Amino acid sequence: MHIFANPARFVRLANKILPWAIGVLALCLPYGLYLAIVASPPDYQQGDSVRIMYIHVPSAWMAMFTYMVMASASLAAIVWRHPLALIAGKAAAPIGATFTALALITGALWGKPMWGTYWVWDGRLTSVLILFFLYLGYMAIWQAMDDEETAGRAASILALVGVVNLPIIKFSVDWWNTLHQPASVIRLDGPTIHADLLGPLLWMAVAMKAYFIIVFLWRMKLEINKRKLAVLQMSVVNAHG
Amino acid sequence: MQKGLKTRKSQRFVILVGALASLSVAIFLVLFALGGDSLSLFLQPSSVKEKQALGELKANQKFRLGGLVESGSFTRLEDGLTYTFKITDCASTINVSYKGILPDLFREGQGVVTEGALTADNIFIAETVLAKHDENYAPPGTIPVNAEACSHPATEAYSS
Amino acid sequence: MADFFAMGGHGTFIWLSYGIVFLALIIIAIMSFIELRSLEAKLNKLKRNNKRSSKTTDTPENNSTGKV
Fold first, then answer.
1. How many domains does chain C have?
2. Nearest Cα residue in chain A from C39
């Protein structure tokens, strides 16, 4: 029963964090949206289309951040066999896959009016597409294998191998000629975004981070409950068997 | 026993991180062995000239050419559909001719990526023109942080 | 107002991207929450049943019928 000692403590902690995360989301999202859609000026080159950036860039950041969460959990799962680690990785994957898909879709919808095309096979776009397939592969392995332990370990190894893709995504725009623009916020010589356009971006980024924490904790509790349920059902069968 | 468990875990950790590190090194070696050119979406005018000098790039051979639209080089021909402009990387320049619709973001001083081929007299006939955006975002009327003489248009570009 | 929705001519792209992002994020959140709640409900029910059945299985005659 020591397996549940930790999860119980985790659920208590999660229940303490959740209201705060919901509060941050309720605060940052409306204000971020107000800045992004109404109050911020258009871009000197792109006009109002720049407003897509306020959801595209945070989605892309979250796609990579969620992958780091999933990969760290996978490392802990393989090395320390921490019972919560596998659950954390499994809980993060669908959220990360969604963020990645959204980054790709909003990027296409931004690319069409600005670049003149929805898609191009350049270093940045292709490496983010690979990130999406890594998420899908991770989830597929969980689905495909019956034994939770084996499935979790195989999926975790895939997640860890995929970590090499993260620096490729980040630096693709520096290493190769791409259609995608270089980094504007996280760069050595400071952001190249005017403060009036950086504000809404950061508010939206915080809102999406809070959203991630909420849904991630829900999904972890969900997975913990699934396992508890399986154990209880087993014990019922044993009692009657 | 407690100690044995700990060393096994740290062993697992070292083996795993070592395996992943060597895998990463292998992948990066492959990526860079392939060379920047093959993984890059387009060639810049300077590398086009280099390849021409080496005989690697022949007339009518298709490739993507990218760079900045040189300020003051853009003209619209009398048919109203054909445009000519120069693509530069601040070191070399190539003349481009394009018949079709230009993307919204196409401006002198801004980046473009074109696909087409060079004629025998070194004019690049583009079949597609995509606009490339740079890293600067700013409200109209302000000067972007990273503005450079070669790479940036005057600030009134927005009003056009 | 019409100007606001037109967004300088690219309104379709802008509103579509906002729409897709919010729809997708809301769906994932709601699906996760509903699944969590239904699992919690199942778990509570099972716990209650377990308690009841463990009480009844304490008596010998119930235990024997349970085994049949």
1. 1
2. A225
Report which residue type is found at C32.
S
Q: Do A218 and C33 touch (CB under 8 A)?
A: yes
The per-type count for chain A, helices as H runs and strands as E runs, is: 7, 0
Residue C37 resides in a domain: yes
Q: Which of C32, C34, C58, C62 to mutate to test the interface with A (most CBs of A within 10 A)?
A: C32
C-beta of residue A78 within 8 angstroms of C-beta of residue A86: no
In a domain, residue C43? The reply is yes
- Per residue of chain A (241 residues), what is the pLDDT tens digit? 344 457 888 999 999 999 999 999 999 999 999 999 999 999 988 999 999 999 999 999 999 999 999 999 999 999 988 889 999 999 999 999 999 999 999 999 999 999 999 999 999 999 999 999 999 999 999 999 888 889 999 999 999 999 999 999 999 998 888 999 989 998 888 888 999 999 999 999 999 999 999 999 999 999 999 998 988 888 777 776 5
| B74 and B135 housed in the same domain | yes
Kindly report the pTM of this predicted structure: 0.89
CATH number for the domain spanning B46: value is 2.40.50.140
Total domains in chain B come to: 2
Phi, psi of A8 (to 5 degrees): -65, -40
The ipTM is 0.91
DSSP for B73-104?
--EE-TTSSEEEEEEE-SS-EEEEEEESPPPT
Give yes or no: residues B8 and B74 share one domain.
no
The answer to whether the beta carbons of residues B158 and B140 sit under 8 Å apart is: yes
The answer to whether residue C44 is domain-embedded is yes
**Quick check: is C9 in a domain?**
no
Residue of B nearest to A177 (CA): B40
Question: The domain containing residue B16 runs over which residues?
Answer: 1-38
Is residue B92 located within the same domain as residue B121?
Answer: yes
Instruction: Provide the number of CB pairs (under 8 Å) joining chain A to chain B.
Output: 138
Let me know whether B108 and B136 are in one domain.
yes
Q: Do the domain assignments include residue B154?
A: no
User: Rg (Cα) of chain C, in Å, rounded?
Assistant: 27
